[in-house]
Amino acid sequence: MGKASSKGMLVWLGLAFAILIVDQASKWWIVSFYRLGDATTITSFFNIVRAHNPGAAFSLLAHAGGWQRWFFTAVGVGATLFILWMLRSHHTQKLFSFSLACIMGGAVGNVIDRLVHGYVVDMLDFHFRWLEPVFRGGHFPTFNVADMAITTGAIGLILDEILRVRRSR
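The structure assignment produced for this chain is given below.
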């Protein structure tokens, strides 16, 4: 990897690291000042809470008996290694690399939680009456900064692919 290649990749690694720091700082704050289940109402549709998720998105496999901790840790580590490989060769593609960096920062943040706590710490609770038919009490599943970064990255990858297909026509 040449100097220009290394410098270009550092921008994306820096973004991933910044996401990781914000994610871990917010989780540290929640763990330090909230007990499991504690909540603070911020608005009529948003609360800060302390929740634990031993599963994946939407608590997928949350009650699987413990093996999922190591499975999702391995998936996060594997994704991170794959993203590093992809960033090395595609760091000049801005939207693509931005998206990968977001996913990597979030994945590492959730992997750290699984290794340290055995679950992911969540704290952002949005609830709307119109969600009641889908989610109990209208509460969207609680999430964290890492989840926001992963979602942003996934949306970015979809957008990048749509733009790539349009350019190729």
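Interim note for the steering committee: The first helix runs from residue 3 to 33. The radius of gyration is 18 Å.
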